[in-house]
Amino acid sequence: MVVDGGVGAIAFLLARVLFGGLLAFQGFNHFTSADAMTGYAEANGLPAPRLGVLGSGAVLVAGGLGIALGVFPAIAAGLLAGFLLVVTPIMHDFWAAPEDQRQSEQTAFIKNVELFAGALVFLVLALGEPWAYAVNVGL
C-alpha cells in the first residue's frame, strides 16, 4: 500500500471516500426512508423488518464511515462484507421474484455482489500497512 502521499495514496483516498461515503449515504437512507424500506423488508419475509432496516442502516453508516475515514477499517470492511454476504440473497432473490420484478432484483443482487467484492478488497488492504490520509485508528 502506498503510504508516502503520492498519486497512489490520493487515488486510494478517493476510492475510500467514494466507496465508504456512498455506503454510509445508503445507510442514512435506511433511517430517512425507514417506512418504505420496512414494507419492502416485510414483503421479503424478514422477521422484525423495522429493526432489520434500522440495524442494517447502522451497519452501512458505521462500515462506510470506517472505510472512508480509516477508523478501524478491518472491522468496518469485515462488517460490510458480512452484512452484504447475508443480506444479498435474502433481500434480492431475483430467481424467486415475480417476472415483472426479476430484472430490478437481479440488478440489485449484482450490485451487492460487487460491493461485497469491494469490501473484501478493503478488508485485505486493512490487514496490511497503515493507510495514507487516514485517521489510522485500529490499523
Automatic annotation (TrEMBL):
One of its GO terms (cellular component) is membrane. The keyword Mitochondrion does not apply. It is a multi-pass membrane protein. The chain crosses the membrane at residues 6-28, 75-95, 115-134. Coiled coil: none annotated. It is found in: Membrane. InterPro entries: DoxX. Keywords: Membrane, Transmembrane, Transmembrane helix. Its main location: membrane. This is DoxX family protein. It comes from Halosolutus amylolyticus.
